[in-house]
Amino acid sequence: MGNKAKWLWYPGDYETALFNKCMAERHERDVLITPFWRMDSHYVTVKFYSDFTLTKPNDITIKVDGSFNIYIEGIGYIYDFTGVLKLPAGEYHMQILVNNVAQLPCIYVDGEELKSSSQTFRVTCQDDVFYPAAEGKFDDPDISPNKKVKREKEVFPVSVQNTDKGVLYDFGQEISARLSVEGCEIGTTFVCYYGESLDEVFDERHCEQLDRVEVKESVIETSVTKAFRYLLIKKDTHYEKITILSEVSEVENKGYFKSNDKLLEQIYDVSIHTLDMCKKDFFLDGAKRDRWAWSGDAYQSYLVNYYSFCDDETVKRTIIALKGKEPIKTHINHIMDYTMYWILSLYDYLNYGGDKSFIAEIYDSAKGYVDFLLNRRNDDGLLYNLPNDWVFIDWADMDNRGETSFEQILFVETLKRFGEITRIVGKGDGALYDEIANELLSKTIEVFWKDGRFVHARTDGKLQNKVTRYANMFAVMFDLLDEEKTKSVIDNVLLNDDVQQITTPYMRFYEQVTLSKIASEQNIVAEIEKYWGGMLNEGATTFWEAYDPKETGKEKYAMYGRPYGKSLCHAWGANPIYLIFNCILGIKPLCVGYELFICKPKLWMMPDFECVCPIGKGKLHIFYDKTNFSIRAENGNGYLEMPEDFLLCGNADIEGSKYIIHDGEELSFIKKEG
Amino acid sequence: MGNKAKWLWYPGDYETALFNKCMAERHERDVLITPFWRMDSHYVTVKFYSDFTLTKPNDITIKVDGSFNIYIEGIGYIYDFTGVLKLPAGEYHMQILVNNVAQLPCIYVDGEELKSSSQTFRVTCQDDVFYPAAEGKFDDPDISPNKKVKREKEVFPVSVQNTDKGVLYDFGQEISARLSVEGCEIGTTFVCYYGESLDEVFDERHCEQLDRVEVKESVIETSVTKAFRYLLIKKDTHYEKITILSEVSEVENKGYFKSNDKLLEQIYDVSIHTLDMCKKDFFLDGAKRDRWAWSGDAYQSYLVNYYSFCDDETVKRTIIALKGKEPIKTHINHIMDYTMYWILSLYDYLNYGGDKSFIAEIYDSAKGYVDFLLNRRNDDGLLYNLPNDWVFIDWADMDNRGETSFEQILFVETLKRFGEITRIVGKGDGALYDEIANELLSKTIEVFWKDGRFVHARTDGKLQNKVTRYANMFAVMFDLLDEEKTKSVIDNVLLNDDVQQITTPYMRFYEQVTLSKIASEQNIVAEIEKYWGGMLNEGATTFWEAYDPKETGKEKYAMYGRPYGKSLCHAWGANPIYLIFNCILGIKPLCVGYELFICKPKLWMMPDFECVCPIGKGKLHIFYDKTNFSIRAENGNGYLEMPEDFLLCGNADIEGSKYIIHDGEELSFIKKEG
Question: Is the CB of residue A57 less than 8 Å from the CB of residue A87?
Fold first, then answer.
């Protein structure tokens, strides 16, 4: 009992309450824009239970957010409670009921022999189901989860200049920050504009973000961060001093990547900064717009996160928030594909080091979504576009009415992985899901396979002529096709420039992942430098929601019919981190919990580099300079599969064609001459 | 469009939010006691839609409780909104999204050609389901549903006296009130005790209600009403003036009952006062304790209400609140019987004049509860006592483990009435439910019928020896048995004093209803005067939760192991109103919506009286003085079936043995000589 007491709550409700707060931070100019899917509430009345024994008199401090009562069996309700419960030695069965509509109901209990924790308290929302109470990192009696304060630091502009529209601050790169302004004139209105680009900040009628504060005291503070590189304080606004308070991530990047190829290094750094900007209490899609948690976007962020921040708590928090509460009435984010990415994400969470117990806890909800999907198939057993369902796939020109081949392929993999999850968390053998997956794959091929590749969709019972990359590349990425069909897809689609090009980093990601699988001759590094490097050439300091190299000038900032609608700091832009570590250096978990890793680098396409790649709880240190390659695992074990033209220096254990990497040992290689 | 604009919200959420407030008003001394079942929350983000046409420019005032945005198709989000939307003539599709975690999200829209109402706005919680927005009586732009203020009036004590414990106020009868106290001494603590009885108010260590307010300003107000007859301001508490603010019901009793039998008249009046005290925003069980909405208690209150206040809005509100939200995980109030009373109440609501549309709206939830019950039967098809299910039946000495005959009988009637509801609201023919009901009845007789009556229960597979009145009287009340079995139950149970007596007005009610059906020689009036009159003899000014004539002295106030735990103002005590009008005067709806009534009075047991009995939207005026009987319907049509010894004066239409009563016409009768 030497541990510190923790604040406790109903499992999932901290995330639910925080999600409500976080989702109310998106604004378009002065307009609040909260999500368009059902937002659930925390349970307003919850009851905590503890059975405990005191060997001596204890003074037990009890703090509660909400109205509450304390009941002890044999004693009854505690009348006249003033904050400390004085109990003599004895055995106790205690209940604390908390009622709080506005905020998370939570408790903190601290006595010499009773400290609140998930071990000492159970909780129920009074539906006859009891769970260990949930706890987090809140152990300060004065700072409950409802009083959590974001970490901030002051940041400084790289330049300040007077313009005819007002004072312009340039921070050199995109930041996420709010303002504290001193010396304002009471009775006036403080007005400022934010811009991801110079064009945006000077366009006061169309810029996406602004603050307009009626000055009632000489110091004002804006409450919600904005994402911007440029800040313009409107002309004639009176103020004396401005402090820019930037949000500080609670979890830092655990890796790094340095190279003599400065472009690639910069792409890595900007990717990290992009994800950092979009990772708040949840993995959000964009820092400026729209600051919501979207399952398909978050899915990629989780993958990138496993190779950078390893912020598993935020992964869990996002998974819980996206799940929502019962009853399941719609797809996650209303998007068919996004429900499936949510299930895929559970499988990745297991592999990349997450604990099984969390997935076991939400297994029933996951099964609820799988059943929801299964129940929405048509008579052919295919998923189809029901009214109000959004089949997103990608921002691109295509017709997703009826049945799309992409959704079927994604569902095949979803079912297979859900079968795996079922096995891993011990809920059965999952064979049922494998079976349905196989049937669905056969049906998908029967319906959509034409001229050596998948057609995009069947609409109103008629096969479209259009072919897109999506179903084809996902089928290859997920290894769903036989050798002949795989080759056919590669030739007819993946390496065929006539098939509609992808213009979002989102799907460009899966394309690169797929290309990295199929043919070693594909130079992914070059592709990354071309596409992501293209954004840097356009002045990007964070990666964008969409990038079409053909767009130049102001049009590159437009989207959704608004001149600055495009998000210039979008989480899915950060995925070169995954491409470098997973696809090029071939670093992956070999089994659940990252107990073992594999590293299978494609060095021929790499410049000289030195890096640290997180592997679950450990790190992999790698050095390469075209002649020498060395690798060392810190807190990890695994295998290395080297290109044939490298020779081991010294000794190593070998298993088949793989070197065994023991924790802490360094292996060095030298390139064969020739 | 001449109507006033109304505040709008998501259907059911006004009730949900209000229920959370109301259920947090129960206190035991200084301890808050909220319900022990799952309390749900309003939806925190809802979106209102309106399609409308303006023929000229309109200035549209929009008021919202919560953060919000306004979006108009073709225009986009409305920036810089200051409260009034100025729109030119045209066709519009408008959305208003409202976000409010702490309170009910609601809107008020008022323009010359657009006024918010359930006709002009739809609403969704963003789960793809849309409803007409809900409205109530809130049409003041400055008083949203969240700002509703309770009506109050000042009441005065009948005596004030100084005692050695403090100043004692006696209000002559039980009231529900809070205090406003002037001239308090800042820095002191204002302490007062409340008592339903003199014993309670003077027992400062055990009285159930008190207020203890730290005086920070010279005027203090208590926030939550207490129910009491006596108030004791603690000795040495400094104050100058006290004002007692009593809650005023928004709906008044629509009937009356006057008689030369002053005891019966008093029983009627005290019953009305009792129900009035327990009817707040919801039908609560007791005014002092426990102030929760309990489905079985509320069921009786609804029935009494149909013969007194006709407050259908509070019936609906209580039905919605008790229903809760999806998913259904437990019985209503955790009590098996209470889920079934909830379904029965829907059937009554339809008959007593409620609109079908409300029942149609919640039909799916009702079906959810019927399915919940069906799924909790055992292999014999019988309901049984599952862990965490509470089989209540009554406060009495009995063993409800295993299967109780009472729950089966109640379920048979529940299924039959649900079949009826299904037919009435046009959701099918309901035959399935009749079929299951018949099977269950057969099984119940097979298992529990022994020696000419139902045995109480089968526990651990063995039939108990105990017989109670419950299953037996309900089977007769619901006409479930054939003539032979009915007679057997009457002789062996209902008229057999050796079978355990009932000591709560709750079940005493059903007993009297049943007795009134079976044999005209049962003098229900005498029984009412004996049992309810007994409480008046004990000094009751409102009727009690339980009354055992054998208990005298202070012990009569005790319950739940607390000396004043018994509620002396309990809604189910008010049921003589129903017994008089429904069971003795035989006034009942003959069809859905009270379109036709029947009146079949048992005059032989009645003293002289004059009364008005509400019949749906109308009233029935009756006069009787043993020789003369007259009856007149005001806003109603129906039938009269007179005892044979009364002769019609004048003419009347006749149908079979019944006189037809036309709206507004009076029929007079005179008793035959001899």
Answer: yes
Would you say residue A540 has pLDDT above 90?
yes
Q: What is the reported pLDDT for A2?
A: 52
B200 has pLDDT over 60: yes
Query: ipTM, 2 decimals?
Result: 0.95
Q: What is the pLDDT of residue A520?
A: 62
At A674 the pLDDT is: 67
Distance, CA of A515 to CA of A429 (rounded, Å): 33
Instruction: Encode pLDDT of B66-84 as tens digits.
Output: 999 999 999 999 999 999 9
Condensed to tens digits (0 to 9), the pLDDT of residues B254-270 reads 999 999 999 999 999 99
Q: Which residues contact A512 (CB under 8 A, 6 or more apart)?
A: A524, A527, A528, A579, A583
B19-22 long-range contacts, CB within 8 A, separation 24+? B19/B281, B19/B282, B19/B293, B19/B321, B20/A44, B20/A99, B20/A101, B21/B281, B22/B280, B22/B281, B22/B282, B22/B284, B22/B291, B22/B293
Q: The whole model's pTM is what?
A: 0.95
* Secondary structure tally for chain B: helices H, strands E: 14, 37
Q: Phi-psi region for residue A119, left (φ > 0), alpha (ψ -120 to 50) or beta?
A: alpha
- DSSP letter at B491? I
Cβ-proximal residues to B432 (8 Å cutoff; 6+ apart), any chain = B419
CB A134 within 8 A of CB A13: yes
Q: Are strands B122-124 and A241-247 parallel, antiparallel or unpaired?
A: unpaired
Instruction: Give the DSSP per-residue string, B182-240.
Output: ESPPTTSEEEEEEESSHHHHH-TTT-SEEEEEE-SSS-EE-SS-EEEEEEEEETT---S
| Residues whose CB falls within 8 Å of the CB of residue B404, separated by 6 or more in sequence, listed in order | B385, B391, B393, B456, B457, B470, B471
How would you classify the pairing of strands A597-599 and A638-640? parallel
Tokens of B236: 């040495």
Phi, psi dihedrals of residue A453, rounded to the nearest 5°: -165, 170
Please check whether residue A500 is in contact with residue A396, taking contact to mean a CB–CB distance below 8 angstroms.
Answer: yes
Q: Mind listing the pLDDT tens digit for each residue in B553-605?
A: 899 999 999 999 999 999 999 999 999 999 999 999 999 999 999 999 999 99
- Is B43 in contact with A42 (Cβ distance < 8 A)? no
**Contact, A94 vs A52, CB < 8 A?**
yes
Q: Do B40 and A37 touch (CB under 8 A)?
A: no
Closest CA to A422 of A409, A435, A404: A435
Nearest by Cα to A180 from A207, A153, A143, A158: A153
Taking the C-alpha atoms of residue B40 and residue A379, their distance in angstroms, rounded to an integer, is 37
Residue B120: which of B62, B42, B81, B172 has the closest Cα? Answer: B62
- Please report the DSSP string for A270-322 in residue order: HHHHHHHHHBSSSB-SBSSS-----HHHHHHHHHHHTTTT--HHHHHHHHHHH
A72 at interface of B, judged by CB pairs closer than 8 A: no
Tokens 């597979």 belong to B461
CA distances from A398 to A378, A464, A500 (A): 22, 10, 10
For residue B119, which amino acid is it?
A: Q
- Please report where in the chains the tokens 């366009």 appear, as a residue: A203
What pLDDT digit, counting tens, does each position of B417-446 carry? 999 999 999 999 999 999 999 999 999 999
At which residue do the structure tokens 């029984």 appear?
Answer: B527
CA distance A301 to chain B (A): 26
User: Which residues of chain A have a CB within 8 Å of the CB of B35?
Assistant: 45, 126
Please give the pLDDT value at position A1. 45
CA neighbor of B610 nearest in space, from B600, B598, B625: B625
pLDDT at A392 over 50: yes
End-to-end CA distance of chain B: 65
Contacts of B77 in chain A (CB under 8 A): 28-29, 31, 33
Any B CB within 8 A of A139 CB = no
Structure tokens at B616: 């749906």
Check if B330 contacts A (Cβ < 8 Å): yes
Contact list in A for residue B34 (CB cut-off 8 A) is 45, 67, 97, 99
